Amino acid sequence: MDKNRVSADQLALMYFLLIAGGKFLTLPSILAGDVGHDSWLVLCFSFLWDGICLAFLLWAIKINVNARLDIADILNNSVSRPVGIALFAIFFVIFVLRADILLSSCFKMFSVTFDVSTNWIVFALPFAALAFFAIGRGFNAIARTSQLLFGLIALSVVALLVSPLTQTDFAELLPIGQAGWGTIVKTSFTRSFWFSDYIFIYFVLDGIKVKKHLYLPVFTAFFAGAALTVLLNAVFVALFGHLAPNFDLAMSKIGIFSVASTANGRWDWLTLSVWLISVIIKIIVYIFCAYKCIEKIFGANFVKINWFAAAFVTATLAVPLFVNTDGLLNTVIKWGLIPFAVVQYALPLLMPLFTRTAIDKTEARYE
Amino acid sequence: MSSIKRIAVLLAAFVAIGFVSQSFKGSNVLDRAIILGMGIDFDDDQLVLTAEIVSPGNGEEQVGTFSKTVTVRGEAIGQCIQYVAEQTGKEASLGQCVVVVLGQNYFEQRDFSDTVNYLINSDSFKESAIICCCSGSAEYIFNNGNALSQSVSMSIAAMLLDQAENVAVASNNLLDYTRSQHELDRTGYLNLITFVPSANSDAQQPDKVQGYFTYSKAAIFRQSKFVCYLDETDVMGKAVFDKDVSGDSFVVYDDGMAYTLKATHKKTDLQVSDSAVNADITLYVSLARTDSAETNGFFNPQNKKLISDAMLEQVRQRAQKLAQSFWDKQVRYNFDLLDVHKALKRKQGESQALSLKPMSDFTFTLTVSVKEG
Description:
The structure holds 2 protein chains of 2 kinds. By secondary structure, chain A is an all-alpha fold.
């Protein structure tokens, strides 16, 4: 059995968790610092680009249903192997950076919310072990875990949001577009590093079981995840106003706010813990995809799982031990924006064409 | 996988879990000094922090009922909290702090924005905690008991969190106050607590002064600097505008008899333009009765009318006078507790000109109507 095969429904649920998993940490305060109360509009624009790219990517999956070419086959047969290797290198950098920045935020969130102190090695070790295990078990194992935990995680996020939602004065978001529409659109591009959560789909292109529907479940998950993210962001900036940029862990503040008006203790600890599982899943998916990048670059040596490569990829979770992640993020935004945009936004738009070309070439070769 | 391998993997997993779990250092609740409330004074060029503390290690005492106060001196709030830990020998925990009281010599003479910023930026500090100021020193407030409750912090928090909005007093929490000092015209208010001594009836603490707290006054601040006081009339005037606050009481006379009417709910409509503010307020009042089942509000059945038009008119005139007087005070001291600037910001967007726009730039029209309900 192919360990990397997933159904469209599993793909959709996992996509939802990946959207909700990373955007409630430092992103809301970063966006509030950039454009103030219009930060929810930045999210809307970013999700708009994501929606368009996702539609093209799903189209490529539809084209690929019978051929079952993987991303390396598609790129090698359409844009040549050297270009493919360059693209995988960009993917690798994105995945590793995202995993490290997420884990770094997670570390802070853990220490701040639960008042527990530890060191990076001990904190990152269980994540690395899980990621290592996931590489061995295949993508299907991660997808099934997501499927199992989806309901709990979604309920936790909703539970955290309900109380603040009732106390939010949404008129605080007026006037709409005060930061300037140009600035809002520009910010949605400069902060694109945080978006395009669909990029993991490239690495399971050949393993998606499409029976009836593909667009419906995936887009339902996308719209639900996007709506939840925009709503949480709107609540955050409406509640905290000019102070929002100072609070770099949005979910932690929302959590404290949600229990402030009740005398039922810190039940937000429970919901936050459950929600953090989605962040863990996201980190593991990124590490899995980073490993896949190495596999695609050094294709011939990876007939089975290469444990040295897997160990190397999971070891990249130690990067925050040596580099400040905030500084790293700023450098990434400065230098990596355009190369990242190629794989985040240009490649999905071209994927149907590349897939068709690759299939035609492969079929012609067999004929 | 062979059985030996399985056992080896299982053992390795146990060792790893043991190693990892030992490396996460949480603080034991017995090692914590849980701060319920803080009073901050300024004396002799130093901050004086009085913390009301409960600690699970306090012998036979019941947690949450009995507390002790610790007073320390330092140059900044962060240092003072560190000294609290030093004095108690326990980690000072701010996560359960419900009230912060600023002493008169502190809030009148000093810019206390650094203290407020420290608290609001502390990850574990609840931004919903009450912040208020007091007449005299905060240390005095914390060291004198409320006759009806053992904890000063809990008494003040209960008054301002739960009770105030039912007795026509608006109250403020740390988040609202801090936002008011950072946004638009940068003015806001804090409730003013006063301790009123009464006879001590506590046989266990015969030497301790007992009494009650009143909170019918407030103080106005601009960028955490004192501007002026609001007396009882001003606070009542503000309450007339505030739709979330009810319980405004009015004594009226009819046929030589005195009656007390209470506002049960209200409708307020504040129309703001660049140069004018039009306030349209409707008060719904009912006859105040002792222990009666006064169920009022928009979704309740209509009751028999008990209040004459003459009585309603008396309430209208009184409410109109209170509201107008409050507006005049806003203009005189140039502060904005009615969110006039915020309403304009929602229309025009934020600008330096709007933030600096004085209240005297607005002409004010007030219409108050009173109905039984």
